[in-house]
Amino acid sequence: MFNDFLRKMMGSSPKSDSKDVAKKRLKFALIYDKLEVSDDTLRCLHRDIVEVISRYFEIDQEAFKMDIRRSDELSALIVNTPILSAKRHISPTGQR
Amino acid sequence: MDGRIIVITSGKGGVGKTTATASIGAALALEGRRVAVVDMDIGLRNLDVVMGLENRIVFNVVDAVKGKCKLKQASIKDRRIENLYLIPASQSDNKNVLSPEEMVSFGEILRKEFDFVLMDCPAGIERGFENSVASADEAVVICAPEVSSVRDADRVIGLLYAKSITPKLVINRIIPEMVERGDMLNHIDVVDVLSIELIGLVPMDDQVIIATNTGNPLVLQKKSKAGEAFRRIALRLNGMTDLPIEVPQAEGHFWRKIGTKLGLGK
């Protein structure tokens, strides 16, 4: 009782630490901000990946799927494409 | 020797860019340097009222950049502080009347006339930001210790790095009582998140609003803690790099210390 009164007099109050929540949220927000990709970037990436895979495989371009999946720990780029056939006669540099 | 052009920026609005520009500019001028502060917030000018020079505007930065007037005509001389000049923004145009290329050439003219040129950057990361940064050699990022401000500061820091500018950090509007309670990010937290060099910590201060009310320079206000903090930032920018950074302390700190000693601490 007396202690509480004195504490009020001295102007100290129990720690609440909402700043720790702020810092944690900030760090996550910054990580997510940096992982954000624009639609344009995704379109270009889509085109380039299809082009590279097509050098080696005949693929079904309609069924080609590309996705960025996020979890708390990491982000993953997931590419899924049906292969129709492998291409023969590929030179060592990958050029047709 | 050519002068230095420093952009004062933050990303987010309302964290104190204009107050910082006016105060650091005034403090540098008090050190005897020739200083121009340039209001780059075209269409929403405010540096003029903060500095109390609003009724002396004839020409503005757009006129000077477009060659409609001489640099001298657009530079308003402060009557209280020797060597301090304001180049005001135009109020009738928008940010797109200027281009970064034009600002680079304008910067070359400014460099010849002044030791320090401070660009007061508008909020945002669009054209106004591009124009303000175009001619800058250095950058000071102003950030308040709260989530939205730190996040925007991080974004702006990234954009500055992309322009090969290594920015320095000022944390503004610190409320020491809240920091002590653990309800406000402390400067260590903010520097940890942003990881750039710190050059100043400025406490929240009623004197800022009082100085703005009257249009008087904050750094001339004797009792102003924020004014003192900005003065120390100016000294550091002026080459006194070993000047220690003071951490704002809560009022009545003395009694609290005694309280802690008596075992009443947290």
Q: What does this molecule look like?
A:
The complex is a heterodimer of chains A (96) and B (266). Chain A starts with a helix and ends in a 10-residue tail after the last strand. Chain A is an alpha+beta fold. Chain A has three helices and four strands. Chain A has one domain (18-86). The longest helix of chain A is centred in the first third of the chain and has 18 residues, at 18-35. Chain A has helices at 2-10, 18-35, 39-56; strands at 57-59, 65-70, 75-80, 83-86. The model of chain A has no long low-confidence stretch (mean pLDDT 80). Chain A has a two-stranded antiparallel ribbon. Chain B is α/β, with parallel strands linked by helices and 266 residues long. Chain B has one domain: Rossmann fold (3-Layer(aba) Sandwich). Chain B has twelve helices and eight strands. Chain B has helices at residues 17-30, 47-50, 61-65, 71-74, 100-113, 127-134, 147-162, 176-181, 187-194, 206-214, 225-237, 253-264; strands spanning 4-9, 35-39, 76-77, 84-87, 116-120, 138-143, 168-174, 197-203. Chain B has an eight-stranded mixed beta sheet, sandwiched between helices. In chain B, helix 1 crosses helix 11 (225-237) and helix 5 (100-113) packs parallel to helix 6. Chain B is globular and about 70 Å long. The model of chain B has no long low-confidence stretch (mean pLDDT 94). The A-B interface holds A 3, 6-7, 9-20, 22-23, 25-27, 29-30, 33 and B 146-147, 150-151, 154-155, 179, 181-186, 189, 192-193, 252, 255-256, 258-260, 262, 264-266.
Q: Which architecture of chain B does the CATH hierarchy give at level 2?
A: 3-Layer(aba) Sandwich
Helix content of chain B: 40-55%
User: If you consult CATH, what is the topology of chain B?
Assistant: Rossmann fold
Q: What proportion strand of chain A?
A: 15-25%
Shape of chain B: globular
Average residue-wise pLDDT of chain B: 94
Strand order of the largest sheet of chain A: 1-4
Number of domains of chain A: 1
- SSE class of chain A: alpha+beta
